[in-house]
Design goal:
The chain is an alpha/beta fold and about 350 residues long. Helix content is about 40%, strand content about 25%. The protein has helices at about 45-50, 60-85, 115-120, 130-135, 145-150, 185-195, 205, 210-220, 235-245, 250-270, 290-305, 315-335; strands at about 1-10, 15-25, 30-40, 90-105, 110, 125, 160, 165-170, 175-180, 280-285, 305-310.
Length: about 350
């Protein structure tokens, strides 16, 4: 059976809407995929700020934003279909929306981007609310990608995504997935304070020196002392930012070098709890996969553990999460389980 699906993802980096048109095939319960077309639609500054602060809005304004973001998303899908000549080729849309509140302890996770608006504008069936089934079954609702990691990338023991938040899937017989630490959220924050959109290739961080005292303060935060499954809300990065801004580090390069050391340390610490008896491979995706300084530091650290870091083709690096939304939508369409809780 072949499903032609548009998957939509707006992630914790707040940089834009990822759109992937994927052909997903099932033959005797063996799943394969091909990303046929993909694009990232950047958010305008006003929308980015609205999404960042959505949880603080009064209820009427929050609901209006929910609708407006859904209508905007639907329009982006229409333009994507026109650009890639996909009329009458798409079976349905699977939209993650944008997370504005995440608190699994209260069994609550909210994504905005009204699915009815997307469907009304595109004329396509639209599947939404993709996280809450996992939370309802006592899961964390995040990371959301482990079922796709398990079905599409089972050749890799570890599937690491370095986005706004860094998360990992451990592809054991009974997969485990959890958020590790804030990543691009904090790296981009300090790069932007220095006048750059982001630290391209980690060039600034490569010039800096690690502040060991601050690194220790970051590594002793309470979240890191607990084992997965666990997940982070978008606002957790503020704890890291506060530690750094209250420290005596003044040089942006030193701040970024310290954050890279922190992220690498936490990745290694997380996977050390799930060792492999033989040499293993780690698939790395998300925007952080393009940070060559971070990847070099991570590769050197994991080489000591006989783990090879693998960066896949660019479309998978950029759009694996949008692909995962498409796949979760396919499973919902088939009325099959689409979570691993």
């Amino acid at each position: 059976m072949i499903y032609n699906v548009i998957g939509l993802m707006s992630g914790s980096s707040h940089d834009g809407l990822d759109i992937a048109f994927a052909e997903i095939t099932n033959v005797r319960n063996d799943w394969t995929f091909e990303i046929k077309h993909a694009a990232c639609i950047p958010f305008e500054k006003e929308m980015e700020q609205q999404l960042r602060h959505a949880a603080t809005l009064p209820v009427p304004e929050f609901l209006k934003l929910h609708t407006a973001f859904g209508r905007w998303t639907g329009q982006q899908v229409i333009e994507f279909i026109e650009t890639n000549a996909l009329y009458h080729k798409v079976h349905f849309v699977a939209s993650h929306g944008h997370t504005v509140f995440h608190d699994p302890e209260s069994k609550t996770s909210v994504q905005i981007g009204d699915g009815a608006s997307i469907s009304g504008i595109t004329g396509l069936p639209t599947i939404t609310d993709l996280r809450n089934a996992d939370i309802a079954l006592a899961g964390q609702g995040a990371p959301i990608v482990p079922i796709a990691d398990h079905k599409f990338f089972s050749d890799f023991k570890y599937c690491l995504n370095i986005g706004g938040i860094c998360n990992v899937t451990i592809n054991d017989a009974a997969p485990v997935a959890f958020d590790i630490a804030p990543a691009n959220q904090v790296l981009d924050y300090f790069a932007q304070k220095a006048g750059q959109a982001f630290d391209e290739n980690g060039a600034l961080a490569a010039q800096g020196k690690v502040a060991d005292t601050v690194l220790n303060d970051l590594n002793t935060l309470a979240y890191y002392q607990t084992e997965g499954p666990k997940s982070l809300a978008n606002d957790y990065s503020q704890q890291l930012i506060s530690i750094i801004e209250n420290s005596n580090i003044a040089n942006t390069a030193d701040i970024l070098a310290t954050l890279v050391a922190h992220i690498v340390f936490q990745i290694a610490r997380a996977i050390d709890r799930y060792p492999d008896a033989t040499p293993a491979r780690m698939l790395v995706t998300g925007g952080g996969a393009f940070n060559s300084f971070l990847i070099a530091k991570l590769s050197a650290t994991l080489q000591q553990r006989a783990i090879e870091v693998v960066i896949p083709e660019e479309n998978i690096v950029k759009y694996k999460e949008a692909l995962a939304m498409a796949f979760i939508g396919v499973l919902r369409w088939r009325e099959e389980e689409n979570v691993l809780s």
